Amino acid sequence: MRQTAYNLTMALAFAVVASACGGFDNTPFRTGVIRGRLTEADPSVALVSLVGNPDVRSTVAGDGTFVLEGVPAGPVELFIVASANKAVRLPVMVPGGGSARLQDVMPRAAGFLNLHVRAPARQSVEDGRVSVMGTPFQQLQLQDDGTLRVGPLPEGCYALETSAAGFPVKKTEACVKESESKEVKIQLPGGGDDDCTISDCEQGERCSTEGRCAECTSDEHCAPGLTCRDERCQVPAAP
């Protein structure tokens, strides 16, 4: 009896040491599966992916069902495009090595970002592209006039990266609500004061020292009670 207890103790100790030293492969427990069904979907455009990790994605079947595999265990957020005008973001807790089964998911009215990309000194925007970071919308081609309608997007805030031949990458953040069609102006960065002229800017804007159109470059350009922060007239930050 004493020998049996001793052998069991040694076996447990060996198991703990082997696990700590990588003796057991726990890879299957680092990911899980999400199963769900959309109450409405157009399989020709519908997809399910992860916010921040768009390479983990799944198509949607004709009946609205989907299976998303290889999802990192823990809290994640789904980025779901259901149709040309419906989308939704959904937080999910994924068990390692297990499966999270969702109740029926109801897509909501999507938003759209109408981008207007301009280059300094009225230069042309050649081979312009925009990526919505952390989503499947990557390297979207701008129109020749620098415009692009991006969506359908679930309600939320998104980081945009805009690039064009001969210009540095421009990073922008834009938020969109349900059913909203939001205009977003993006000024590509230039190399100095000569990149921007007043004629390039909208009424009330001025050229910043970085060669882009800005609402203000100092407090004197703002109405009383406002300060110039990030080239915009804003309420002073709380002390």
Automatic annotation (TrEMBL):
<feature type="signal peptide">
    <location>
        <begin position="1"/>
        <end position="20"/>
    </location>
</feature>
<protein>
    <submittedName>
        <fullName>Carboxypeptidase regulatory-like domain-containing protein</fullName>
    </submittedName>
</protein>
<keyword id="KW-0732">Signal</keyword>
